[in-house]
Amino acid sequence: MVAGPNTRRYHALLLIARNPPADRFVLVNHLEERVTVGEQTAALSANCYPGVVHPDGYRHCRGFSSHPWPTWTYAVGGAQVVREIFCPQGRDMVVIRWHLVEAGGQAAKLIVRPMLSGRDYHSTHHENDGLYPGVQGTGPVSWHLYDGVPVPRAFYSGRYRHAPEWYRRVQFPVEQERGLDGEEDWWSPGEFTMDLAADRSAYLVFTTEPVETVDVETLVRDERLRRQRMADGAPGSDRLVRSLWQAAEHYLSDRGTQKTVIAGYPWFTDWGRDTFLALPGLCLVTGRHDVARQIIETFSGYVSQGMIPNRFPDAGEAPEYNTIDASLWFVHAVGRYLDYTKDGEAIRRVGWSAVRAILDGYRQGTRYGIRMAEDGLIAGGASGAQLTWMDARIGDWVVTPRHGKPVEIQALWVRALAVGQELAEQFGDKAYAKRCEDDRILAIKSFRARFWYEQGGYLYDVVDGVGGDDASLRPNQIYAVVFPGELLDEKRAQQVVQVVEERLLTPVGLRTLAPGDPRYRPRYEGGVPSRDGAYHQGTVWPFLLGPFVTAWLRVHGQTEATRRQARAFLSGIEQHLGEACIGQVSEIFDADAPHQPRGCFAQAWSVAELLRALLEDIGEPGMPGH
Q: Would you list the domain boundaries of the chain?
């Protein structure tokens, strides 16, 4: 996108969620821009077509900055043309501005053609006779593309000429690499012609909001000030902290009158597991405690049979309850909220009944065979179901089923029982607190007896599975060190961290399977079956650096030297912020060097867990946790 062309179907200028965070539509895909300064005319934009990039605006680009928002500088006719793009916070609106610098008194003319589609964000758009080709209004203008599709409107400087054209066979190379439909047609309604001068900017504002006017200068001033306040609020001097601090806000979204978390861009909505794994890093260490409470309240209203939803579908169908860990992450997040706020009354009001329902649901048994076994550990699994975060499935093939008793689920269960005990004691329910304590002691005893894999010097990934005990070397065991609870003695905790560091750690995250395993996949590439088959079979996940840093410092102790070493584990992520989605952390990376970023180009728990570890575990004096 920095060079100009849209390379994914998800790239767009105006993409809105009609029912946030779902029901998303791509309305304005792109702009084609050409500017004349003196006797020279040059393109500023670029698109990919079969075998060619046209026009060639990237050849004239002389600079790019992402601060305070994406800004390009182009050299044309001895002058420089600057383009800025930003979305005002909380608005269904995008603002594009152009102005001249170093023009030597010259004026310039800019012609801009918007490219529209009006489609679901997962699909592609193709030339058809059903699109309404007309225009409404003169300033602003709007285009009613299809029935049932939000209507984009444009406020602009200059003049508009309605002259519809189709731009055919636009290519999306990243989609093609992923084995998906990577070609579409765009409809362009007409041209905006604007004058540029050193003292006069040109602008285009696209929106679906029913406003009559826009004040671009006020929008610029207010958004610049808001972003500066956000940057100034970051604690300490660590550049990575400051970058992730600013990245975190982009994942917080409305769901009805409450708040939720977008799991990742460009294609995820809100997922239960992702939301509560990410909540401490997005909301608690950043001081957004009210948002955290609202998120807890949102999901509390959807508890069913002792489970919170794994996913809210895009189109608003019934939530999906097909995860063994999301509900336990919910309880953990409630506990962390209480750690930060000490607001027991808020938890009594919006979270305690959900916590009890989850604990009781797991004890009694719920969907997919999820239940507390006689040994106090949590078991689960059903044919064709993928219940843990390692959830890839290709048709009827569950790539990593992990049926039985997965290691991180036991750590989460022991943690959930501790939270339940603490809350019950605080709310005066001594009998329930004692029950949680007894179950916790039993689970710890059983874990210590069952999960140590002596031959490898680490923990089984799953015990009591369909095929017996699974000794695959995976990163899930790190959570047995992260959560306090006497799951491991000091020696074994050190061994777990050491083997993970030696076999799974990379500069950008932890591998999901150790090299040397016959199922190990070094690269996440190709079509859907190839990619899903590699998703958790070696592919690196950066969010796991968060618990790794926590565990590493837990066994090595908190000193200035150990904190420096822990910070060094994140240096690869710091370099990554300048690639893929600038300023964000990707979902995954290839297992083998050079660890190409893959998957979603911006992932909530990737940002959140790194920020949490930086502030709570590594930190500087005065930071949260220190």
A: 14-218, 229-618
